[in-house]
Each structure stands twice: as C-alpha cells, then as structure tokens.
Specification:
Elements (H helix, E strand, L loop, with lengths): L1 H37 L5 H77 L28 E7 L9 H8 L3 H6 L1 H15 L6 E7 L3 E10 L3 H12 L9 H11 L5 E6 L30 H14 L6 E6 L8 H11 L4 E2 L7
Parallel strand pairs: 1-2, 1-4, 4-5, 5-6
Antiparallel strand pairs: 2-3
Helix pairs in contact: 5-6
Length: about 350
C-alpha cells in the first residue's frame, strides 16, 4: 500500500514543474517582445512628412489669422465711415431745414411786397413823351441814357420788320402799311421812344434813321426840355417805312455832321451792315460788292468786312457808343462785333428780351 501511494505523489510533482516552466517561458517571451517593441524607431520619411504637414498647417493658420485681422480692420473702417456719413446726412438735413425756412420767409416777404404794390396802384411816369409798356418794367433794362449831347441812330432797313429771313422776304413784297405794322418794327419805334423818354435833364439830342440812305427826324438839334420837339421825332419815326439794305456808314456820317459835339451815341439795329458808300475805298471782290445794285445777296464774311471798313472810314473819337441789338436769323457774328465796339468806347451792349420795352 505504501508503494502505490508514493508513486502518485511523484506524478503530481512532475506536472506542476512543467506548468511552472511553461509559465516562466511565456513571461520571458512577453518581456522580450515588449522590449523589442519599445526600442523600434519610427521611419525617417514618415517623420519628415508629418513635420511638413505640421508646418503647412501652421502657415495656413497664420494666413487665416492675418486675413481675420484685415477683415476686422476693414469692418472697423466701414463702421467709422458709416458713422461719418450718418453725421453728414444729419448736418445736411439741418441745413436743408434752415434753407427751407429761409425760402418760406423770403416767399412771405415777396407776397407782402406784391400785396403792397397791388394796393399802391399803377405807377405813372413823368416822361416828356408817352410810351407804351407795363409800369416800371419799361425802366428796368440795365441801360441808362446819359450824356449832354446825344445822337440816336435808328436802323430802318427791311430786316427790321422780322426776326426770320422768311418773314423779312414776305414783308419786302408786302405793302408799306404791312411793313409799318410789323411787330419788330413797332418794337424798334417803342425803343426809340423809350430812349427819348429817358433823356437826361437839359440834354440835347439828334435822331437819324438810316437804311441805304439817311434822314434826320425832328430838328437837327432837339432839347430834352421841349416835349414838342420829342413828340415830333416820334411822329416822324412812326411814318417811316422800313425797307432796303443797311448802310451804317451813311448813318454815322449824317449823325456826326448833325451833332458835331456828340458825346454819346445810341444805335438801334439788328445786324451788321450790308452796304458801304460808293467810292468809299472798300476793296471789292467777286464775292463781296456791297454797293447798292451790285449784288443781290451778301455773305456773313462780306458783312464783317463791310463793318470793319465802316469803322475805319468813320472813326468817331471820344463818343461813348451804346448798342441795342435786336434778333435776326442768319447773322451770328453781329453780337461779337457790336459788343467789341461798345466795350472799346466804354458803352453798353444789350440784346434785350422780347418783352422789352
């Protein structure tokens, strides 16, 4: 019995040793594997790639930060600009309110003046001759009649009947009564009367009407103090018939000989002259022969040459010349030449509105 028991104990001990040996081997193997894994290096290429990706990511983040800063600055600037615009709008609104109120005040003053003028009744002028017109409108033109010895030239050529060339041609073939009744000619007569009514106290005046010839109206020398003298001039002017061409040279010669001590000259016309006196020294050519009967039409350049010749042939020194230029189609150079003449003599040039006088 004792023998069998001993054998069982030996068998158990051998199996236990085998198990322990196996366990110890497994532990050693695990330790070897762990140590190998810990000492394994990361490949260099992979490390470089990761570093590059990190650098690129850092650059992108930096650019995004800069862009964000720029946007923040722009937003701040826009906010400041918007605030400035709002302030300017507010200031403009205040100014607009002030201007509106001032305009209302001015309109109220004008309304009061209109009421006072209407209540005062029509104005009565104390002029030596009667002229047509609406109250003081006949006075307000920017032209003042002045001087001690005054000459007045009235253009009575055919063009003084109408503003348009077609109208002038129609009136040329019309009757004398039709020419005299033409609206432009009637306006010219009102202008003459306006000048006569505005003569300075104790002034002397000579009036000459001219076309291709010239005629003295009234006396050679008329007095401002004599209403009869001035009314006689007005009556004779009303009987004139506007026709033919314009010879300014003839008119200047007549007014200079009629009043040889003339100080101021007033010319009522509508364009540059078309005629010169025969044998006056004008240099004629095939396209410009401005003597009556030599050519039926005249160019703008020829009219300019006629005007220049007239000024050279009839110099009037020391005389202040004032021009009243009425409108005429087809003579665009006239305003420039007449303005230059008036300016050179310290006179006045006006092209009045159609409602005057």
């Amino acid at each position: 019995m004792s023998i069998f028991k001993k054998r069982r104990e030996e068998g158990f001990n051998l199996a236990f040793l085998d198990v322990m040996a196996c366990g110890l081997g497994a532990v050693i193997l695990i330790l070897i594997l762990v140590k190998f894994s810990a000492n394994t290096d990361i490949p260099v290429e992979e490390l470089n790639r990761l570093k590059q990706e990190l650098a690129a990511t850092t650059d992108v983040a930096s650019e995004l930060q800069k862009s964000l800063s720029t946007k923040q600055l722009e937003l701040a600037a826009q906010s400041a600009t918007l605030e400035e615009i709002q302030q300017r709008l507010q200031s403009l609104k205040i100014n607009q309110d002030a201007v509106t109120q001032a305009l209302k005040d001015e309109l109220a003053v004008i309304a009061d003046l209109e009421t006072a003028i209407a209540a005062a009744g029509p104005l009565v002028a104390d002029d030596p001759i009667e002229i047509s017109g609406a109250g003081e409108e006949t006075y307000l033109v920017g032209l003042k009649v002045q001087g001690r010895h005054i000459g007045i030239l009235l253009d009575m050529s055919a063009s003084m009947t109408d503003d348009t060339l077609i109208g002038v041609i129609k009136n040329k073939v019309g009757s004398d009564a039709q020419k005299q009744a033409a609206s432009k000619w009637q306006r010219s007569l009102r202008i003459l009367n306006w000048l006569l009514a505005r003569l300075p106290n104790n002034a002397q005046v000579s009036v000459v009407a001219f076309n291709d010839t010239s005629v003295v109206l009234g006396k050679s020398i008329n007095s401002q103090t004599s209403a009869d003298d001035l009314n006689q001039i007005a009556r004779q002017a009303a009987g004139l018939v506007p026709n033919e061409g314009t010879n300014l040279q003839q008119g200047l010669q007549t007014i200079a000989s009629t009043m040889n001590n003339m100080t101021d000259l007033y010319l009522i016309t509508d364009g540059l002259p078309t005629y010169v006196n025969p044998n006056s020294g004008f240099n004629e050519n095939r396209s410009c022969r401005p003597v009556q009967g030599k050519q039926a039409t005249i160019t703008g350049e020829c009219r300019a040459n006629v005007f220049a010749h007239t000024m050279r042939a009839n110099p009037i020194s020391g005389v202040t010349t004032n021009i009243i230029l009425l409108p005429l189609e087809g003579d665009p150079m006239a305003p420039g030449f007449y303005w230059s003449w008036a300016d050179r003599t310290r006179g006045t040039f006006i092209a009045p509105a159609g409602t005057w006088p």
